[in-house]
Design a protein that fits this description.
The protein is an alpha+beta fold. It has three domains: 2-138, Immunoglobulin-like; 145-235, Immunoglobulin-like; 309-503, 3-Layer(aba) Sandwich (Rossmann fold). It is 26% helix and 31% strand. It has a seven-stranded mixed β-sheet with strand order 19-18-24-20-23-22-21, with helices on both faces. A six-stranded mixed β-sheet has the order 2-10-9-4-5-6, with no helix packed on it. The protein is rod-shaped, with a radius of gyration of 52 Å. Bound molecules: 2-acetamido-2-deoxy-beta-D-glucopyranose (6 copies). InterPro entries: AAA+_ATPase (IPR003593), BTN3A2-like_Ig-C (IPR053896), Ig-like_dom (IPR007110), Ig-like_dom_sf (IPR036179), Ig-like_fold (IPR013783), Ig_sub (IPR003599), Ig_V-set (IPR013106), NACHT_NTPase (IPR007111).
Length: 506
């Protein structure tokens, strides 16, 4: 021991002097622990001295190697000529404590690398002694940063990240306290401040309900834990990245939806505008001078086109679509215009009526009589055509009906519904019960029975049954005078269609 001390003094270019056994240095504590950025006071206690001004104190760090000079007081005077740059301004001897026989080294703003073994040498005159203490600078682990990452179809990777010093023990467990540490995978690297940053991952099944806890343990008992509730946290606890992706997708969908909606609205308005002008062309407001004309359609000016409630509450799109398809090909606008102008409509009593009176009210039946060739079939076709093309300003305002069914009855026989069904130009078989339900129920529809002749028993009776049973359906029957005597008796509204004489010039 004495030999070593002599060697140290020589190494410090100190004159070789005998050290008295009477002068001793002791420590209160041999190990110190302090936190990063904190401070610490390392204490050596020495024997009473006669002249404190003669005192020499040397603090140096001797482990890790190489040794560095931390603080030096030579015969009462500070000498920074040997002090390591690492400790300049951070190391001080507390002068007042020298009077209490204590050589107290005050280290400030601690760094992780300040950890090590410190030696104090105290001398007075030709007597001296030394002791060593250890210092551990630690950094508590930061609160754990959790993240969840999808790694497979049914797997997620839970990740815990924290930094501190010294290196921790990371333990994973589940809700039943099963130790899952062996299944985890950790990586560590050093930060600028010599801290250890640890990321520990555990891969689990994404739809298995469980709690997973990661714990960071260090020797000093400093502990950080975090728990994942799976699968709850996969949705809300996801990393901000996922939240962002979801948010962006939602915004994009909203933009797409709005633009499609606006375009459809725009197109819809455009096409309805087209239809309105088509209608206006079809049924021009005739000059008032023509007010006696049966074709005056002043009351039927183009009206604003809105989606009707029937269109929104589509009940049987298939039937409606089939008929729309079937009737929209019947006539061209020019033909319709020309034809409709050539008809006159009279009541049974001979009073002239607007052509729009041809459309029955709800649950009303109209019998339209006309001589052969008077154009009953043509008018029936015009009605269905106007309906099919959804012309919003037709003379009959027929577009608002949900369904128009035109049935050619000239050679019809058998059950009424079968006859109606056979009027559909449709390759696939239609369900009669659907049709029945539609015509008997509350759907606003128009059934046109064109060219009806009484005399077929089954048809007459089933039709009669239908006319009494139906809830709403409008029915227009066209026939030659005298061919439907029974109907003529029961139906109140009987109209006559007359082909007007050719008007020259117009
Ligand atoms: C420190 O070194 C300088 C020059 O190397 C010297 O002049 C000065 O006296 C020294 N200080 C002490 C306290 O020894
Ligand atoms: C200081 O750290 C060393 C190694 O890092 C360890 O062996 C020792 O127990 C620690 N001392 C204290 C007081 O924490
Ligand atoms: C869990 O297992 C790891 C290694 O497999 C072990 O180091 C640790 O002590 C265990 N922890 C508990 C709480 O059993
Ligand atoms: C941990 O990761 C390494 C490299 O990524 C891999 O080789 C090893 O198998 C993994 N261990 C576990 C338990 O997942
Ligand atoms: C742990 O997960 C993180 C992020 O999910 C990844 O960057 C890192 O490479 C993973 N580490 C290991 C050891 O698998
Ligand atoms: C998970 O933790 C929550 C909160 O402590 C608890 O209510 C729940 O029962 C736990 N679930 C499982 C599967 O352990």
């Amino acid at each position: 021991m004495r030999g070593m001390l002599v060697f140290i003094f020589q190494a410090l270019l100190w004159p070789a002097i005998p050290v008295s056994a009477l002068f001793t240095v002791n420590v209160q504590k041999s190990a110190y622990e302090a936190e990063l950025h904190g401070d610490v006071k390392l204490v050596c206690v020495f024997s009473t001295v006669k002249r404190p001004s003669d005192l020499t104190v040397i603090w140096s760090r001797v482990n890790p190697k190489p040794d560095v000079d931390v603080y030096r007081l030579e015969k009462g005077k500070e000498n920074h000529n040997y002090t390591s740059a690492l400790f300049i301004k951070r190391a001080q001897l507390i002068q007042q404590q020298l009077n209490e026989n204590k050589a107290v080294l005050h280290l400030k703003n601690l760094r992780i690398k300040d950890s090590g073994t410190y030696r104090c040498i105290v001398r007075e005159g030709d007597e001296g002694d030394y002791k060593q203490v250890t210092l551990n600078v630690t950094a508590p682990y930061t609160p754990i940063k959790k993240s969840i990452r999808k790694t497979g179809q049914d797997e997620v990777e839970l990740s815990c990240e924290s930094q501190g010093f010294p290196s921790p023990q990371v333990i994973w467990s589940d809700g039943q306290n099963v130790n899952l540490t062996e299944k985890s995978n950790s990586s560590a690297h050093n930060t600028d401040e010599d801290l250890i940053k640890v990321i520990s991952n555990l891969t689990v099944k994404r739809d298995l309900v469980n709690n997973y806890t990661c714990s960071f343990l260090t020797k000093g008992g400093i502990k950080q834990t975090a728990t994942f509730s799976i699968p709850d946290e996969i949705l809300h606890g996801c990393s901000a990245q996922y939240v962002w992706i979801v948010a962006v997708v939602i915004v994009l969908l909203a933009i797409a939806f709005i633009s499609v909606f606006l375009r459809r609205r725009k197109n819809g308005q455009k096409s309805r505008r087209n239809e309105s002008s088509k209608c206006a062309f079809l049924f021009p407001s005739l000059p008032s001078a023509n007010s006696d004309s049966l074709l005056t359609v002043n009351e039927n000016r183009p009206q604003t086109c809105d989606i009707t409630s029937e269109e929104l509450a589509e009940k049987s799109p298939s039937l409606r679509d089939i008929l729309t398809q079937q009737y929209s090909q019947l006539d061209t606008d020019v033909e319709v215009k020309r034809k409709i102008e050539s008809y006159a409509l009279h009541s049974k009593e001979g009073q002239s009526l607007n052509i729009s009176s041809i459309l029955p009210d709800k649950k009303q039946t109209i019998l339209l009589l006309g001589e052969p060739g008077s154009g009953k079939t043509t008018v029936a076709q015009i009605l269905s055509s106007c309906w099919a093309r959804r012309i919003t300003a037709d003379a009959f305002n027929i577009h608002r009906l949900h369904l128009v069914v035109l049935v050619d009855c000239s050679r019809a026989e058998g059950d009424f519904f079968q006859v109606v069904k056979s009027s559909f130009n449709y390759e696939k078989p239609l369900d009669v019960s659907d049709l029945k339900e539609m015509l008997l129920g509350p759907t606003d529809c128009l059934l046109i029975l064109d060219g009806y002749q009484e005399g077929n028993k089954v048809l007459d009776e089933t039709l009669k049954g239908f006319l009494t049973e139906r809830q709403t359906c409008r029915v227009l029957v066209t026939s030659h005078p005298g061919q439907c005597p029974a109907l003529e008796k029961t139906i109140r509204t009987v109209l006559q269609l007359i082909q007007r004489p050719e008007e020259s010039g117009s």
